[in-house]
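User: We ran a pulldown and think these components assemble together. Before we commit to crystallization trials, I'd like a predicted model of the whole complex to look at. Sequences follow.
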Amino acid sequence: MKTENQKAWFFVLPVLLLVAFNAIIPMMTVVNYSVQETFGDNLFFWEGLTWFEQLLNSERFYNALGRQFLFTFLILIIEVPLGIAIALSMPRKGFWVPVCLVLMSLPMLIPWNVVGAMWNIFALPDIGLLGYTLNHVLGINYDMTQDPVAAWVTIITMDVWHWTSLVVLLSYAGLVSIPEAYYQAAKIDGASNWSVFRFIQLPKMKNVLTIAILLRFMDSFNIYTEPFVLTGGGPGNSTTLLSIDLVKIALGQFDLGPAAAMSLIYFAITLLVSWLFYTLMNREDLNTEGDR
Amino acid sequence: MQKRSIVPIVYIVFLMLPIYWLVAMSFKTTNEILAGFSLFPQTFTIEAYVTIFTDPSWYWGYINSIIYVSLNTIISVCVALPAAYAFSRYRFLGDKQLFFWLLTNRMAPAAVFALPFFQLYSAVGLFDTHLAVALAHCLFNIPLAVWILEGFMGGVPKELDETAYVDGYSFPHFFVKIFLPTIKAGVGVTAFFCFMFSWVELLLAKTLTAVAAKPIAATMTKTASSAGYELGLLAAAGTLTIIPGAIVIYFVRNYIAKGFAMGRV
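Assistant: Here's a predicted model for the assembly, 557 residues in total across the polymer chains.
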């Protein structure tokens, strides 16, 4: 049991100050912009909720939001099952374990713009390995700068390449924590592979999988650099995800008011979904503590 | 070799292909790259690497990145340690709300904060310094560090603390001499994650710097647009950004799976 102690606040204070400096002041700036119109020269005029109304009635916003949800949905339904499958087939002990883990983690340690540039080079139609193979060996017409479908396939493949390992590592951490005795008991009972997975492995992975889905949701919903470097949001607007659109409005057109209003709505959506996951996760924590 | 080891092997090959292509590209001459497709470099050249290591505007990019990433890792771990201890050992007013509020900052899209950050750090006179980037990255690294450390500390039985007090240890003495060595692995993993997320982030780092503290990633984007399209140079610079990650990951290889699970397995 934890003890009640209000002095613990002193331990938290440095974190609180640093994060508040970085979070609250910029957030107030955004709120400030979201209700004003600017004409440069630091002239600001009160606009009330105009930007929010305009945004919630604009097709452009819903298109970007729709693309964003589609992207997040697609990468989640590919990465989570794939990650579990790979974790299940990995060796549990021996020399190859650290080798696998290190090689699999490598994509996550590459700066995000390098990931984008790397996939750009990889997918170039005539001189990239992927583009050349598809076009000249398999005979599929592939050019992601022209074809929206090809652009989508490329950004999804890039994200699967970049982040599936996160799901693998989390699932793997859950799997190795299962005592050998569980498997022996299942063998005596004559359990099939599927029931071992369903009743032993999956329940043990539930906690870590929730973390994986939470992290993947947050990061894929906020994704900016990789698709921006890879496709620049094109062809047309076909891969303009929410944050790419946001940066276009804020820094490209310098429409600070609408961009700020969009930021707030964007943040609110991320927050809401993450809160649902977080509550779910904490309830799981309580349940497992009850089991012990 | 069992049949099921095919799956991880195929997966690792898939992961290595784009990396191989980047490395192969970095050893080709510009002419060869533009002339057409070749699986291996025909005329092997290290010209691109020579350019990077002799041109200050290139190699300073790496030094800048390493300075602010290290600075951020040190700050994040040092302030997160006491906070994580408080969350794992005590109940206090607003603890759950505070913990969730910290996590929300991990969820904030960097794109939302780019412009306000620029204004904030210009106003306090830190624009274009390593410290600015290091502090800005605290926004998402401190919550992460607290989360991971709290997970690891939760695994240490409370009896350890109580025994130490009975033995007459003062709190700071106990924390440094007994508690820290116990969660050594957790501290290592946390430092690794802070390093990783600060190293890969570019949007804020680019927004907060101009010349003096410009990160390598920003140098690369400038080259891609201004000096024509020097793919070989770009590939070499990209290859070099993979190396620091590969080095730090080697040190935490045995704890990495547990670390990604935030110490909560």
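Chain B is about 75% helix and 0% strand. That may be worth checking against your pulldown data before setting up trials.

User: Thanks, that helps.
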